[in-house]
Structure formats: structure tokens, C-alpha cells
UniProtKB/TrEMBL annotation:
Transmembrane segments: none annotated. Keywords: Peroxisome. Residues 95-119 are annotated as: Disordered. GO terms for cellular component: peroxisomal membrane. It is a single-pass membrane protein. InterPro entries: Peroxin-3. One of its GO terms (molecular function) is protein-macromolecule adaptor activity. It is found in: Peroxisome membrane. Residues 95-105 have a biased composition (Basic and acidic residues). This is Peroxin-3.
Length: 436
């Protein structure tokens, strides 16, 4: 029996060898393909997981940007309200009216609306409104006309200074935090992928400490806009407002569309001035200089924002300064890009539009209270043609400025600005720029 099988095997040896080889090769190929498919599926799962991680971290970073912005907003608002104390001017006008009433004199030339607007419409709700009372008491007495002109310029200046400063702060934080978030994610991914041995982990700990100090210093640079940079914006804005509104009497009547056209003219002047500074190669553009100090003032900034212990640790190693400078150079490159100036202009445009819409809506609501239901259908169209005194519009702008100064989570204007698609596109471009 065994002889039979041996003879059979010897007779068909070649076929058996070939068949065995084919089967073996097919098996190996099958195993190879199966392994490759499994590797591909595993790699695909890892890539999908990594993408989801990136998305989650990106969304979290944008949320952090807004929460950081709201936390810094009171610091930005307080000096602007102190410098542009509209409420004090309003009180001065009210006091003039009260004093004349006590003396039994008529208010010559005020007409219905000017003194009434001062006493009823202009709010004094902001906490910093009384800060300059003592200083104002020592100032030379202004005429009522001078007070109204000052009120006109300063109320509009405060409104646009808030809007421009807040828009810049939003942009700055989105750039700053996305740079740091991308850097942190990339470093974490590299560490996990390389699986460094324990003796190298010590070096990594030292490197992480160097990066942490540089990043903490980097985060301190929002101080410049909050304390110094907004002043440059205020000066430019005030000059532009004086050019457009300087000759307009507060008693002059305007429609909401005419007022919007004037505000738009101011915005265009500011935009041109910002563009001209950006094109001047001899100086930093206004956007950059409002957000970042000159290099010789960087240590001064760090002194204002950090304690002695941090400064000692930071100065102990030149690497900290080098890492900080890398972060600042990247940030400055983004700020000098035309995309940022376009987004700034867009944020301001959207902010102005929402404020004017709110003012118009308030005007319509006031009219609804005095008309019947049949007339309300035509009210909105008629209201666009209705003229009101500039003084009343200034009072409405001041109320809206107080809304801009609120760091409430349900602040519709600020939430809209922070969530514009163009701003998200800028943030995504920064976050995904791993070539830096």
C-alpha cells in the first residue's frame, strides 16, 4: 500500500511540487493581502481618529478664543470709557438746563429735543462713567454749543473705538490661540509617533518647560492693545469723525439711512488710513502697531504682565527669547497680511450694521406704541423716511455702545462678530499651517 503511494508520488512529483507551490504562494499572497488590508483599515481608523481630534481641538480653540475675549473685554472697555466720558458731558448739559430752570430763564435756541435728549435718552449705565468728575470740575466752563459738539464727537468716537478695538482683539486672539493650539497638537503628535525612550524624555521635559515660558510670554502680548494700542485707533477714528460730522449741528434732522451714510463715510476714511499705513515701508502698519509693541518695548510689556519669578526664569535662558520671537514673527506675518485688514473691515461693517438695525428697530417700536394696528403695516417703510435730530441718534448710539461694552454670553453683536465664516477660515488656515 505504501509502495503504491510512493510510486504515485514519484510519478506525479512535478505536479505535486507545482501544486504545493501554487497553494503556498496563494496562501502567502492571501495572508499578505489580508495583512495589508488590515494595516490600511487600521491606518484609516487612525487617520479618521486624528482628523476628529483635530476638529475637536479646533472647535475647542475657537470657543476658548471667545471666552478669552469676553474675559478681557472689561479691561479693554474701562480706559475707553474713562477717556471718552460721554456720561459726564451729558450731566453737564443736564446741569445747565437745571440751573437755568432754577433761575426761571428760558433755554434760548434749544428747541424741543436737545436738552430733553440729554436728560432722558443718554444713559449713564457704565460703571466707569463717573471716574473723571473731579477732573472735569477743574476744567474751564464750556458753552452749551461746545458741550453738544463735544458730545457729538466723543459719543461717535467711543462707539467706533469700541467696535474697532473689539474687532482687533477678536482677530488677535484667534491668531494667537490657534498658533499655540496647532503647535501643541503637533508636538504631542510627534511625541506619540516617535515613542521616545526614557532617557530622551528628560530632554523633552526641559524642552517643554522652555516652550511653556515662551508661550506664557506670548499670551501676555494682548496687554498692548488693552492698554496702549487702542489709543492709536481712537486718535485716527476721532480725526475721521471730525472730518465727516464736524459741521453737522446736533439739531439737524436725519433719516436713519442718511445717518448710516455718514457713518459709512467715516469707516471709509479709517479704512483708507489703515491701508496707507500698511503700504508705508518706513513704519509698521496701524494694525500691527496697535497689537504689537516695538521690539525695544517687549521687555517692558513682560514686566507689566508677569511677576519677578517668571521674569527671572524667562531671562535665565536665551532660548526662551528665541522661541518667543519665533511666535511673534509668525503672528506679525499674519497681521501684515491683507486678509486680516479685510476681515477687520468686515467685522466693523457687520457691527455697524447690527447697531443701526437695532436703532431702527427701537425707533419702529416707539412708533408702534402710538399708532393703531392698521397703520403698523406701513410703519417700517415710513420710518426709513422719518427724520430725527442727530442728538437723538447720538443717544441711541450711546445705548448701543453700552451693549458693545457688555461681556455677557448672550451679547448678540459680539457673538455674531466672533462667528463670522471669514474669521473661521482665517483660523483654519493658521491651525492647519504645520509647515511653520
Amino acid at each position: 500500500m505504501f509502495q503504491y503511494w510512493r510510486d504515485l508520488a514519484r510519478k506525479h512529483r512535478r505536479k505535486i511540487v507545482v501544486t504545493t507551490g501554487v497553494v503556498t504562494v496563494s496562501y502567502l499572497i492571501g495572508r499578505y493581502v489580508t495583512n495589508k488590508v488590515n494595516e490600511f483599515q487600521e491606518r484609516l481608523r487612525e487617520e479618521n481618529f486624528a482628523k476628529e481630534q483635530v476638529k475637536r481641538r479646533f472647535k475647542q480653540t475657537q470657543s476658548d478664543c471667545y471666552m478669552t475675549f469676553l474675559s478681557l473685554l472689561p479691561v479693554l472697555v474701562e480706559p475707553i470709557y474713562e477717556e471718552l466720558n460721554v456720561e459726564q458731558i451729558t450731566r453737564d448739559l443736564q446741569n445747565r438746563r437745571t440751573d437755568k430752570s432754577k433761575k426761571g430763564q428760558d433755554v434760548v435756541g434749544s428747541g424741543p429735543g436737545l436738552s430733553t435728549v440729554a436728560s432722558e435718552d443718554f444713559p449713564s449705565s457704565y460703571a466707569g462713567a463717573d471716574s473723571n468728575d473731579d477732573n472735569n470740575a477743574t476744567q474751564p466752563m464750556k458753552t452749551k454749543t461746545e458741550l453738544w459738539n463735544t458730545l457729538k464727537i466723543e459719543s461717535l468716537t467711543r462707539f467706533l473705538t469700541l467696535l474697532y478695538s473689539e474687532s482687533l482683539l477678536i482677530i488677535f486672539l484667534h491668531l494667537q490661540l490657534n498658533v499655540l493650539s496647532r503647535k501643541s497638537y503637533f508636538e504631542t503628535a510627534v511625541k506619540l509617533a516617535s515613542q521616545r525612550v526614557s532617557n530622551t524624555l528628560q530632554e523633552d521635559d526641559e524642552e517643554e518647560e522652555e516652550n511653556t515660558l515662551a508661550e506664557q510670554a506670548f499670551l501676555s502680548f494682548s496687554w498692548w492693545l488693552l492698554n496702549k494700542g487702542w489709543i492709536q485707533l481712537k486718535n485716527l477714528i476721532q480725526d475721521s469723525i471730525e472730518d465727516v460730522f464736524g459741521e453737522i449741528n446736533p439739531r439737524q434732522e436725519l433719516t436713519i439711512e442718511e445717518f448710516a451714510t455718514l457713518v459709512n463715510a467715516v469707516q471709509q476714511k479709517i479704512c483708507k488710513s489703515i491701508a496707507s499705513t500698511a503700504a508705508d515701508n518706513t513704519t509698521q502698519g496701524l494694525i500691527v502697531s496697535s497689537l504689537l509693541p516695538e521690539p525695544d518695548l517687549q521687555f517692558f510689556l513682560l514686566q507689566q504682565t508677569n511677576d519677578v519669578g517668571f521674569l527671572s526664569s524667562f531671562n535665565a535662558n536665551l532660548t526662551h527669547t528665541e522661541n518667543l520671537n519665533k511666535l511673534l514673527m509668525e503672528l506679525k506675518d499674519y497681521l501684515g497680511n491683507e486678509q486680516v485688514s479685510s476681515i477687520l473691515n468686515l467685522l466693523v461693517t457687520v457691527g455697524i450694521s447690527k447697531v443701526l438695525d437695532s436703532i431702527f428697530a427701537d425707533m419702529v417700536l416707539k412708533r408702534k406704541a402710538i399708532v393703531n394696528n392698521e397703520d403698523q403695516k406701513m410703519l417700517a417703510n415710513e420710518q426709513k423716511l422719518t427724520k430725527v435730530k442727530l442728538a437723538s441718534l447720538l443717544a441711541a448710539v450711546t445705548k448701543q455702545s453700552n451693549k458693545l461694552a457688555s461681556n455677557s454670553l448672550d451679547n448678540d453683536i459680539l457673538y455674531t462678530l466672533n462667528n463670522l465664516q471669514e474669521l473661521d477660515d482665517l483660523s483654519a488656515g493658521v491651525y492647519s499651517n504645520f509647515e511653520v
